[in-house]
Amino acid sequence: MANAPKKTVLSAAPAEPAEPAASPAEVVAAPAPSASSPMFGAPAATLTELQDRLRAAAEKSLAETRSAYVKAKVAAGETADALETSYAAVRAGVLAINAKALESLTANVEANFDFVKSAFGVGGFADYVALQGEFARARLDAVAGQAKAIGELAQKTALDSLEPIKAQVAKGFKLAL
After folding, report:
1. Closest by alpha carbon to 174, among 75, 82, 87?
2. Per-residue confidence at 6, pLDDT binned at 50, 70, 90?
3. pTM score, two decimals?
């Protein structure tokens, strides 16, 4: 046990005498601080100010939220109108393209029947080859014209259908800026 660490004993410092605790009778008999005392006057006024500020901020936030809701509702309505207008333009364009395609088909079928009637009336092979050459040239010109007309209708349809959406997007960017 010679190598065992030595224990040191700390002596307790003498305690300072504590103030005597107030008796329950003294606590009850002590006057309660009033609201007009300086200790409670300032916090009460600050609390009222804080409540007023919070109420004002909440009312302002509510008004701004209502305003934003109205703006969003109007923008959504305008966007829906633009989409409806665009859809109507697409519908009208597709109807025009279909009508033009049907017209082209009818013209091509009639031209083919006319060629067959003419082919039965030719006198020889040379006349048939000449008739076939003229028919092919006429059909190529007609098909090129028909394709051009349908292409123009498709382009017009695309432009007409995109115009309302383009205007709405531009309006949205103007409002955002």
Report:
1. 75
2. low
3. 0.59
